[in-house]
């Protein structure tokens, strides 16, 4: 059965115009980069339909590095605090075996709680909207620091991701590799802030709590950004990519 599955896997990659490396070939191919946006037809034909990523060079959208701070100075916004910067990932619950899924909101926040700056960016990306045949259903603004990590996951929509400031590193799998996400069901959880005494001082700690009533979330079991070589070896053995 395994040779037949491997042949089917290779044929599906070939149909999408993807290389078919051997199973032990882990070399990553860089996404193509262009200086100007593609035409809607080219974007649909060469990238959307076969599931190929594309990098489009762009200039900064912010007029100054302090723009966001100044524009939202008096705006109340929500924060998703975690001990390690993983706001959308699996975490071990101390009183429950296995892992729990810690979720962050993706709720069209640019046009919601960040509406003060929404007018300073285009409402949509015209060449992408024409290629996809619709306007964006949601426009989110993600703000993080060097510790912020988004876990392995599968989006149900085509995405246009704009890096406004800093860097964002992506590890992408083609559509043919969906099985390598090892999606399983996990109970949803979230962190809550709690004060604790530490050497005579009151300090704010984050406590992981399960959602009530219980909500089950299908999520990837893979962590390709493990903190140590030992953890990476366990991941590679349990969930081979």
TrEMBL record:
InterPro entries: Cupin_8, JmjC_dom, RmlC-like_jellyroll. Residues 114-241 form the JmjC domain. It comes from the Eukaryota. Belongs to the JARID1 histone demethylase family. Residues 221-241 are annotated as: Disordered. PANTHER family: BIFUNCTIONAL PEPTIDASE AND (3S)-LYSYL HYDROXYLASE JMJD7 (PTHR12461:SF99), HYPOXIA-INDUCIBLE FACTOR 1 ALPHA INHIBITOR-RELATED (PTHR12461). PROSITE patterns: JMJC (PS51184). This is JmjC domain-containing protein. SUPFAM superfamilies: Clavaminate synthase-like.
């Amino acid at each position: 059965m395994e040779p037949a599955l491997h042949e089917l896997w290779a044929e599906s990659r070939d149909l999408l115009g993807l290389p078919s490396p051997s199973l032990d070939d882990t070399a990553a191919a860089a996404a193509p980069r262009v200086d100007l946006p593609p035409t809607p037809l080219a974007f649909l034909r060469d990238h959307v339909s076969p599931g190929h990523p594309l990098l489009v060079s762009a200039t900064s959208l912010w007029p100054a590095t302090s723009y966001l701070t100044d524009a939202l100075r008096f705006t109340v916004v929500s924060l998703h605090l975690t001990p390690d910067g993983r706001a959308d990932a699996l975490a071990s619950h101390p009183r429950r075996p296995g892992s729990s899924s810690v979720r962050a909101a993706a709720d069209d926040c640019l046009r919601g709680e960040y509406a003060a700056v929404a007018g300073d960016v285009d409402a949509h990306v015209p060449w992408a909207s024409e290629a996809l045949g619709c306007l964006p259903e949601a426009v989110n603004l993600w703000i993080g620091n060097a510790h912020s990590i988004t876990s392995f996951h599968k989006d149900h929509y085509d995405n246009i991701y704009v890096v406004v400031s800093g860097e964002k590193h992506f590890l992408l799998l083609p559509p043919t590799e969906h099985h390598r996400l090892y999606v399983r069901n996990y109970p949803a959880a979230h962190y809550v802030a709690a004060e604790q005494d530490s050497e005579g001082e009151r300090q704010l700690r984050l406590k992981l709590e399960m959602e009530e009533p219980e909500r089950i979330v299908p999520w990837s079991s893979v962590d390709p950004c493990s903190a140590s070589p030992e953890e990476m070896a366990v991941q590679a053995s349990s969930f081979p990519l």
